[in-house]
Specification:
Length: 221
């Protein structure tokens, strides 16, 4: 939630914190072991696992022992494709400009899966992604039923991409409406757990009252 993986290009600072630690070997905290790191950081006031700050494990000279270097192989493994796409762009795109890489190691990068079939990202992957056919959204639209999907940025893929079997875009733009409510960048969910629930509810209410028949998929928890 705080280091390496964000979603839908909502907060590139999250990815940069991970890049600095994992690739450059630079972080605000340095420890001799992962056990020491977790015990120390968990002891901080209001600490919880998803929001622990970045740290690196160092040798006796204070140098990071595991930065990504030229010649390394990198494999990213995560069940959630939306959590991997931004990092995959940072690792693979030659024209990446969302933050300063400082150093780009020459390595061979692969994902466990191809996380975005339309972007073909990453270009190398270990397991072909499953093809999900005849989803509920596709079924409804092909039977002439209008659909409405609304969520905030960090959950938008739940009601569009995932809901449609890992496909972006529409099956039929004349029968589907997708509405994205921008998420508040930099505000963590443990501080603002209601997120954009009120705005999503209001948009869903307005759509229902407009008289256009459809289905609503609010923020997924």
């Amino acid at each position: 939630m705080y280091v390496t993986m964000d979603r839908y290009e909502n907060d590139w600072d999250v990815v940069k914190r991970g890049w600095d630690a994992q690739v450059l070997g630079e972080a605000p905290y340095k420890f001799k072991s992962a056990l020491e790191a977790v015990k120390t950081l968990r002891a901080e006031p209001n600490a919880n696992d998803p929001y622990l700050p970045p740290f690196v494990i160092v040798d006796d000279s204070g140098n990071a022992i595991g930065p990504v270097l030229d010649g390394d192989a990198v494999v990213t493994i995560n069940f959630r494709a939306d959590r991997m796409v931004m990092l995959a762009k940072a690792l693979e795109y030659a024209d990446f400009d969302k933050f300063d890489h400082v150093r780009v190691p020459k390595n061979r990068y692969a994902g466990m899966l191809q996380y975005d079939g339309e972007l073909k990202l990453p270009s190398r992957y270990l397991v072909s992604p499953p093809e999900i056919e005849r989803t509920s959204g596709e079924y409804l639209v092909k039977n002439g039923i209008r659909t409405f999907a609304c969520s905030e940025t960090v959950k938008f893929g739940h009601v569009t991409f995932f809901w449609n079997g890992n496909r972006s875009g529409y099956f039929d733009e004349t029968k589907e409406e997708y509405v994205e409510i921008p998420s508040d960048s930099g505000i963590t969910f443990n501080v603002a757990p209601k997120m954009k629930a009120l705005e999503i509810a209001e948009k869903a209410r307005d759509t229902i009252l407009s008289g256009r028949p459809g289905t609503c998929q609010p923020a997924k928890w």
